């Protein structure tokens, strides 16, 4: 009799536990659930497993600083990798964030890199000795890429994903893979094989998905730098939920070939291309990864990658000769997509950001703010995105589950069902709609396009074009487990193939508890569910949770977006919660 999904899950979880050294296991009291809503972020520091030096390594550096210390020989890779392996082991026991564990192999590789440095006096690659965690979708030789599906377990990869090859060439040390939601179409990271990921800052709130394990691991400092994937918000949503910086590149900037996506080869060419990108603590850590990948000639590993190194990409030019201001950073503020109106705290956040930017001058020059209304276009993105993402009617995923009798995860049970596959002509029409929207969206970047509502007086005539836009990541704060509503605010930029990042701004405060909804009827069913995250929850659960915004640039302007995010990261440090009431959209 073939194994049931329960048998497979039990074997897989046992394998995972046995790969954690016994000396790194928490005592039952340390790993037991805390009071509802409390944080477990301090447990790694207090549990006694990490040495003082290991606490320092994992807490006092970001990935960029660690990389510099490793490249100069001031830190040994074996010490850094061991520290993060131990902390990741603790994170796994607290948040269930890992799938595949290869600590032993990582420590062996770290020693080899240290020996290389001792013999040559030089680092190996731009990421020499740096521990990096990756989402379960990436294939690593000899390990599963089961993506939380029982029927895909115990089938080790025989080749590496393209990005894995690039990271190895650049000297990175891969040490674990991270947990995801079933089908990777959910916004809460739960599957039947590995279980549910918990938000380390507040177990009542979701850690997001589909790169939820990556977000939780980086948040608890179990990884110096994580890599997720994103086809509808799967990097940006976990970044928001864990108060981190996330970056979804344009397709063609970071190699994606060789992933396990659960779908037949070539499926993405009929749909929307997913991308791989960093989840990190700082913007400069995102740049570290993107620069290193670009210098590794990724186009030699993935034919879809644009053959252009990081320094060859268009940069943000705010300063001219002698560091004199050349032109302002011009930012468009989008407050709603017209499909789901932001709740009061998100409205207030956008107003706080707008006011701060209007009164700020960054060290690199002036910042100009433009109010932008793209609702008429954004609403069309929702329908087209949903149509393209359901081309096969979920048949492939449901067939995989049927092989072992595996049920759908809770979040998917009312959302995913088998539908007729779309015909070739229906697919063609959806692709035509996507191309049309991409063409029409070109107009939002220029004043002459007609989507600008206001412009700062600092703008020069004939020089009016936006560098980036700022908008919500979602129309709500970080919701309770299994209550994320939709990806409308993130998926539009996958449809358009725009690079998009997430920056934390501030935390949810007492003033954010105020604000009521309009008396008018909800815009639609999505808007109705969104309102219930304000009217049918204990709002105090949101207190202390991070509030983030999304930053977006035109297609393939990835370096320009990173440059702008670096400016905004500094500017956002001065954002304070306003006392004004949120407006009613």
Describe this structure as you would to a colleague:
It is a single chain. The chain is an alpha+beta fold and 585 residues long. It contains 18 helices and 15 strands. Strands 1, 2, 3, 6, 7, 8, 9, 10, 11, 12, 13, 14 and 15 form a 13-stranded mixed sheet that branches. Strands 4-5 form a two-stranded antiparallel ribbon. Helix 6 packs antiparallel against helix 7, helix 13 runs antiparallel to helix 15 and helix 13 crosses helix 16. The longest helix has 19 residues.
Features:
585 residues; alpha+beta; Amidase signature (AS) enzymes; 2 domains; 13-stranded mixed beta sheet; two-stranded antiparallel sheet; 18 helices
Query: Termini distance?
Result: 58 Å
The CATH top-level class label of the largest domain: Alpha Beta
Task: Give the helix/strand class.
Answer: alpha+beta
Number of helices: 18
Strand content: 5-15%
Global Rg: 23 Å
CATH superfamily of the largest domain: Amidase signature (AS) domain
Q: State the low-pLDDT regions, or none.
A: none
Number of domains: 2
The percentage helix is 25-40%
Q: Main β-sheet, in a few words?
A: 13 strands, mixed
Report the mean per-residue pLDDT as an integer: 94
Task: List the SSEs and their pairings.
Layout: H1 5-18, H2 28-31, H3 43-46, H4 52-59, H5 63-72, H6 77-95, E1 98-101, H7 103-120, E2 131-135, H8 162-169, E3 173-178, E4 190-191, E5 195-196, H9 212-219, E6 226-230, H10 236-241, E7 245-248, E8 275-280, H11 283-295, E9 329-334, H12 344-358, E10 361-362, E11 365-372, H13 375-389, H14 395-402, H15 424-441, E12 452-455, E13 468-472, H16 488-495, E14 500-507, H17 525-535, E15 546-552, H18 558-572
Parallel strand pairs: 2-3, 2-6, 9-11, 9-13
Antiparallel strand pairs: 1-3, 4-5, 6-8, 7-8, 7-14, 10-11, 11-12, 13-15, 14-15
Helix pairs in contact: 4-6, 6-7, 11-18, 13-15, 13-16
